[in-house]
């Protein structure tokens, strides 16, 4: 129905300041009785090596790339449990698991943390019918990741789908 579609649009227009604020995320979640799919795609790219990263850069990148997904999962996962079904899709980055990328130390570190978060949530809630997976696009494939919700079938959970156009070959 139209109300459900409007709620989906609301979720797509969340700003970074909202996603890293626990009270605002919890308030947003209260507007939903049930959630079918949670697609976590937030990310901030810190440019530079570890030597060019200040503690404030590290903290901000952690908050946007990992804490925001933690807060969103914690707030919206309970909306999936009563129906014993739901799909959580987290977005990491190809460099988080298979290849190092110059000047992406901080970004890659926290995107790797998302893979760990994904696998833990998948293991913890598999028996309750919740599937949690992670897509890992490269920079070129990022524009196409919105089409990948189909990967969230009943047999896909706890996985990393690496979408890199053959980069790792």
TrEMBL record:
GO cellular component: cytoplasm
Gene Ontology BP terms: siderophore biosynthetic process
Matches recorded under SUPFAM superfamilies: NAD(P)-binding Rossmann-fold domains
Record EC number: 1.1.1.104, 1.1.1.30
Catalytic activity: (R)-3-hydroxybutanoate + NAD(+) = acetoacetate + NADH + H(+)
Keywords for this protein: NAD, Oxidoreductase, Signal
GO molecular function: 3-hydroxybutyrate dehydrogenase activity; 4-oxoproline reductase activity
Enzyme superclass (EC): oxidoreductase
Pathway assigned to this chain's UniProt record: Siderophore biosynthesis; Amino-acid metabolism
Endpoints of the signal sequence: 1-20
Highest taxon of the lineage: Eukaryota
Family that this chain belongs to: Belongs to the short-chain dehydrogenases/reductases (SDR) family.
Protein name from the UniProt record: Dehydrogenase/reductase SDR family member 6
């Amino acid at each position: 129905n139209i109300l459900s579609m409007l709620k989906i649009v609301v979720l797509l227009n969340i700003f970074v300041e909202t996603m890293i604020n626990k009270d605002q995320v919890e308030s947003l979640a209260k507007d939903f009785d049930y959630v079918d799919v949670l697609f976590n795609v937030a990310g901030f790219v810190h440019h530079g090596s570890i030597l060019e990263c200040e503690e404030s850069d590290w903290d901000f990148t952690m908050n946007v790339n990992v804490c925001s997904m933690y807060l969103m999962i914690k707030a919206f996962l309970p909306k999936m449990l009563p129906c014993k079904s739901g799909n959580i899709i987290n977005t990491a980055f190809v460099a988080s698991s298979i290849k190092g990328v110059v000047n992406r130390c901080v970004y890659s570190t926290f995107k790797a943390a998302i893979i760990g978060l994904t696998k833990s949530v998948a293991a913890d809630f598999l028996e309750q019918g919740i599937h949690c997976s992670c897509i890992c696009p490269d920079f070129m494939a990022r524009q196409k990741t919105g089409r990948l919700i189909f990967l969230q079938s009943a047999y896909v959970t706890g996985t990393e789908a690496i979408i890199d156009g053959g980069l790792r070959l």
